[in-house]
Specification:
Layout (H helix, E strand, L loop, with lengths): L6 H15 L22 E4 L4 E5 L7 E7 L8 H12 L3 E6 L13 E2 L1 H11 L4 E11 L1 H12 L5 E5 L22 E3 L2 E2 L14 H10 L18 E6 L7 H11 L6 E6 L26 H23 L5
Parallel strand pairs: 3-4, 3-6, 5-8, 6-7, 7-10, 10-11
Antiparallel strand pairs: 1-2, 2-4, 8-9
């Protein structure tokens, strides 16, 4: 992919940087109590060479389901993903919020991020005494949804997938330095670049959306960058915004469902008036309808969050608690 060129293109991406960077700050978590016999378990910070994550165990003595939670291109341990993690924890899930880049010691650009990062995170969660290893779901948003679908296609033991504003393909990454070199693929596996779709032609009227929409338009039907979602047997819940102006999340949701056409457990929650911020724990009720960054309005996005969040919880409960395994 050629690096984004032109002042308008750079301004759009710099605006995205500002929006996403604002999501990176979260309050520190107190030191962990690792006594697994305690009825009330403590949150933990995990800072190792292979895993940068925050762990939010359910406040219960008995073992229960786990969730691997991935944020988007803001990187690090964003406050939006943290809000979702805490809500899931309060609903009774053991939640591991994972940073895959832009945390201390991690890559600064979203390029060739090792998929092994998620392998280590999943293995850590599976090894927890309080986590039912055969009842683990994965929940990702935007680039995190792209990663979640790739991870689930590689790990048949994952029992549920929630993908908010997802991608049906693996994309070229983001070189935040804008230093003139072509960006590399978003992901790597075993040290090798993972297949990636290049960005399409830039349209200044559509901005970032055009890079993804035009990239999809030139996609070969047999491209190795298409995520092989048919390789997972886990039920999928896809949430998309019809007014998404970052990338065509509803079109890609339909492509995911078509790829898994032989299955009946792929559900799409599509909100025609919502944008890229269609999902997640509802924030404060907006006082008025203002245009929202990357599509929709503050009111339409709030309405979609309010409607979709209890459906996300119901989906996870059905897949991870009420499956009858």
């Amino acid at each position: 992919m050629q690096l984004l060129r032109g002042a308008s293109r750079r301004l759009s991406l710099l605006a995205l940087t500002g929006v996403m960077a604002a999501c990176m700050h979260s309050a520190p978590i107190p030191a962990a109590d690792t006594d697994l016999t305690a009825d009330i378990r403590e949150d933990q910070q995990l800072r190792t060479e292979t895993l940068y994550a925050d762990y939010f165990p359910a406040r219960a003595a008995s073992a229960g389901p786990g969730i691997l939670l991935l944020g988007g291109s803001e990187g690090g341990l964003g406050s939006g993903a943290r809000r979702d993690a805490l809500a899931l924890r309060d609903h009774g899930y053991n939640v591991l919020q994972v940073s895959f880049y832009r945390a201390p010691g991690q890559l600064e650009n979203l390029e060739r991020v090792p998929l092994e990062t998620f392998d280590h995170a999943l293995a850590w969660l599976q090894d927890r005494e309080e986590v039912e290893a055969d009842h683990i779901g994965i929940y990702g948003t935007s680039k995190g949804a792209e990663a979640a679908l790739i991870v689930a296609s590689r790990h048949p033991e994952i029992a549920a997938i929630v993908a908010a504003v997802p991608s049906s393909v693996s994309w070229t990454g983001i070189n935040w330095a804008f230093d003139g070199r072509p960006a590399e693929p978003s992901w790597s596996l075993n040290g090798e670049a993972y297949p990636a779709v290049p960005y399409g032609a830039w349209d200044p009227e559509l901005g970032l959306y055009s890079l993804y929409a035009n990239g999809l338009a030139g996609l070969d039907a047999d491209s190795p960058a298409i995520i092989p979602v048919e390789q997972t047997g886990a039920p999928m819940l896809l949430i998309c915004g019809g007014a998404d102006m970052l990338w065509p999340s509803c079109d890609m949701s339909e492509q995911i469902r078509a790829r898994a056409s032989e299955r009946s457990d792929v559900t799409i929650l599509a909100y025609p008036e919502a944008g890229h911020f269609v999902a997640g724990v509802p924030a404060e009720v907006p006082s008025e309808a203002e245009d929202s960054e990357y599509g929709g309005t503050t009111l339409s996005n709030y309405a979609s969050q309010k409607d979709s969040w209890p459906k996300i919880l119901d989906f996870l409960d059905d897949a991870l608690r009420n499956s009858g395994d």
